[in-house]
């Protein structure tokens, strides 16, 4: 069964009360029999380009409850995918299953499958996730162990070649969205600037350390 979010609220200095907030309609996730997460779709789309998809995903995902609350926030995850019948890109519904790791690092468990009856030809191109307090990819994001394999594949229907990628979405204190893409095949790190992808660095080694190109930084 697909779930929405339920929260535990601590009230008072002595006792505690368990409460449940109104369900978040954008969170639609369940764990399948094989142990992986599945999300419904689509939450948003169609988009004609990955740039349009990524910009919209940032606006949607970083405005969810707690998504931009800094050290007190948490991550949301989703899938982005393509439908050949519509020649368009889509964003799935969200998952909020995750928490904190040692050292206060936030994480969300990435869904691995999609339930979208409207687009049975959907091709999953990768994951998307928000960061509440950091605009940079973590080493876990860019390590070889996190690559979605195969990282490059051919669409059997059209012959089109796709690279899988991970989107990172962060809302600045100014209210602007910062959007980044990590290509699992080329390992390039891209920033969305002026409506187009700009290469700003590359991940190297097993642990995916990001080396920025000369003259580039996470912010323009």
Structure description:
- Residues 5-20 have low confidence and may be disordered.
- This protein is mostly beta strands and 220 residues long.
- A hairpin with a 4-residue loop joins strand 13 and strand 14.
- The protein has one domain.
- Helix content is 7%, strand content 35%.
- The longest helix has 12 residues, at 50-61.
- It has a nine-stranded mixed sheet with strand order 3-5-4-9-12-13-14-15-16.
Secondary structure: number of strands: 16
Q: Enumerate the strands of the largest sheet in spatial order, edge to edge or round the barrel.
A: 3-5-4-9-12-13-14-15-16
What is the CA-atom radius of gyration, in angstroms? 18 Å
Summarize model confidence as the mean pLDDT.
Answer: 90
Instruction: Note the total helix count.
Output: 2
Instruction: State the end-to-end CA separation.
Output: 43 Å
Secondary structure: helix percent: under 10%
Shape by Cα distribution: globular
The oligomeric status of these chains comes to single chain
**Secondary-structure-derived class:** mainly beta
Low-confidence stretches: 5-20
List the SSEs and their pairings.
Blueprint: E1 29-31, E2 37-40, E3 44-47, H1 50-61, E4 77-83, E5 88-91, E6 98-100, E7 106-108, E8 113-115, E9 123-130, H2 139-142, E10 152-154, E11 161-163, E12 165-171, E13 177-183, E14 188-193, E15 196-204, E16 209-212
Parallel strand pairs: 2-8, 9-12
Antiparallel strand pairs: 1-2, 3-5, 4-5, 4-9, 6-7, 10-11, 12-13, 13-14, 14-15, 15-16
Condensed summary:
It is built from two helices and 16 strands. With about 220 residues, the protein is mainly beta. It has one domain.
């Amino acid at each position: 069964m697909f779930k929405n979010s339920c929260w535990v609220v601590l009230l008072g200095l002595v006792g505690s009360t368990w409460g449940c907030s109104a369900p978040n309609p954008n969170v639609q996730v369940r764990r399948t029999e094989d142990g992986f997460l599945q999300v419904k779709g689509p939450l948003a789309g169609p988009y004609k380009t990955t740039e349009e998809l990524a910009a919209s995903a940032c606006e949607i995902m970083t405005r969810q409850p707690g998504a931009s609350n800094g050290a007190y926030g948490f991550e949301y995850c989703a899938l982005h995918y393509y439908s050949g019948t519509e020649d368009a890109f889509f964003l799935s519904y969200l998952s909020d299953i995750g928490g904190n790791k040692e050292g206060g690092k936030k994480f969300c468990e990435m869904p691995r499958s999609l339930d979208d009856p409207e687009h049975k030809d959907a091709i999953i191109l990768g994951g998307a996730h928000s960061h509440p307090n950091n605009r940079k990819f973590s080493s876990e994001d860019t390590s070889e162990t996190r690559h979605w394999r195969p990282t490059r594949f051919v669409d059997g229907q059209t012959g089109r070649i796709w690279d899988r990628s991970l989107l990172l979405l962060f809302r600045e204190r100014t209210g602007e969205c910062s959007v980044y893409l990590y290509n699992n095949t080329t390992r390039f790190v891209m920033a969305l600037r002026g409506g187009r992808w700009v290469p700003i660095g590359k991940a190297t080694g097993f642990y995916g350390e990001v080396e920025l190109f000369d003259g580039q930084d996470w912010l323009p």
